[in-house]
Amino acid sequence: MGDSSDSVSVDMETISVAGKEHLVKTGRGYVSVAVFGDQDKPALITYPDLALNYMSCFQGVFYCPEAFSLLLHNFCIYHISPPGHELGAAVMSFDDPVLSVDDLADQIVEVLDYFRLGKVMCMGVTAGAYILTLFAIKYTQRVMGLILVSPLCKAPSWTEWLCNKVMTNLLYFCGMCTLVKELLLLRYFSKEVRGSVEVPESDAVQACRRLLGERQSPNVLRLLEAINERPDITQGLRKLKCRSLIFVGESSPFHSEALHMTSKLDRRFSALVEVQACGSMVTEEQPDAMLIPLEYFLMGFGFYRPSQCNVSPRSPLSPTSISPELFSPESMGLKLKPIKTRFSEEV
C-alpha cells in the first residue's frame, strides 16, 4: 500500500477477513455468530451492548487499521449477537424462550462447543461485558482473558432501573421510536459527539441511529428485561484469575461502576484505562484510544502486531501520553496494575 507517513501498511493477503454468518442451535434457542478470519487461530469472541450487534458496536475498532492488523493477525473473530439482534433478524416468536442473563451466558458455552473452541479471549461492551464476565465466572477454564468496555457488575441502580423501565414501556407500546433511540444514544455516546444546535452529531452517532432503526423492538425488549433483572456479580469477580483489561469513557453513565469493578478484581491481573471526553462505547467513539493498551495487554499472552503495520500518528494515543505504569514489566505479562490513561483532545 502507500508509503505516506500518515498511513498504515497492512498485508491483506496474510489476513483473512471474509466473514461468514452461522446460525447456531442451542438449548436456549438460536444464536447468530459472524466468523471473521482463520479458524485455526485462537478465538476472540465479542458480545455487544443492548440493542446493538457487531456492525453497530465493534465496527469502529475493527475498522481502525492498526487494531485490525493486531486482532485479525492473532485471532479468528467470533461476533456473537444477542438473540434477535443479528442483521436482518425477524421478530422473535412468542414461543421462543424468554432468556435470563444466566441463560445468555450459558448460550456462549454452547457456541464454543459448536465451533470446537477451548479457551477464548473475550471482548464485550456494557451489557455484553456483563454477560461475558458472568460467563467467565461460571466457566473459568474457558476464558483466556477479558477485554471489557464500560462494564457492568452490579444490579441496576434505581436511576438505571427506572430508565430501563421507561424504555421497556416505550418499546412495548411505540416500538423503536425517536425517544427510545435518544435514550440509547445517551447510554452509548458522550455529549461531545451527540451534537447540539451548533454542532452536528458525529458520523458514528448518525450510523448508530440508522442501525437502531433496523432493530426489531420486541427483540430488544426481551434483552432489556433480562439486563434490567441482572443480579450483582461482584462477589464472583474474586474467582476470576484471567487477565482483564477494562476501558471506560469518563462521560459514560457507567463510569463509577467500571471503577467499582476494577477495585474488586485481583490487581495482579487487571488494568483500567479511562478515556477522556468519551461515552460508554469506546469501540465506536474513540477506537484509536484502545490500540496501545490492547497491544501491551496482548503481548502478555504472546500475541504481537505484524511488522507490516506501524503506529499511525493519527492515533490520539502515543507512548508519551500513556501512564509509564503501562510499560512496566508487570503489564507486559507478569501482572497488570490499575492505570489511568488520559490524552489531550487536541492531539
Structure commentary:
The longest helix has 17 residues, at 158-174. β1 (19-26) and β2 (29-36) form a beta hairpin. α4 crosses α5 (127-138) and α6 runs antiparallel to α10. It contains 13 helices and 8 strands. The chain is globular. Mean pLDDT is 85; it is low at 1-17, 309-339 and 341-347. Strands 1-2-4-3-5-6-7-8 form an 8-stranded mixed β-sheet, sandwiched between helices. With 347 residues, it is of the alpha/beta class. This is Pollen-specific protein SF21-like. InterPro entries: AB_hydrolase_fold (IPR029058), NDRG (IPR004142). It comes from Solanum stoloniferum.
Mean pLDDT: 85
Structural class per helix/strand content?
alpha/beta
Tell the overall outline: globular
> Which regions are unreliable across 5 or more consecutive residues at pLDDT < 50?
1-17, 309-339, 341-347
Through-space gap between termini: 26 Å
**Strand line-up of the largest beta sheet:** 1-2-4-3-5-6-7-8
Family: Belongs to the NDRG family.
Protein name: Pollen-specific protein SF21-like
Organism: Solanum stoloniferum
InterPro entries: AB_hydrolase_fold, NDRG
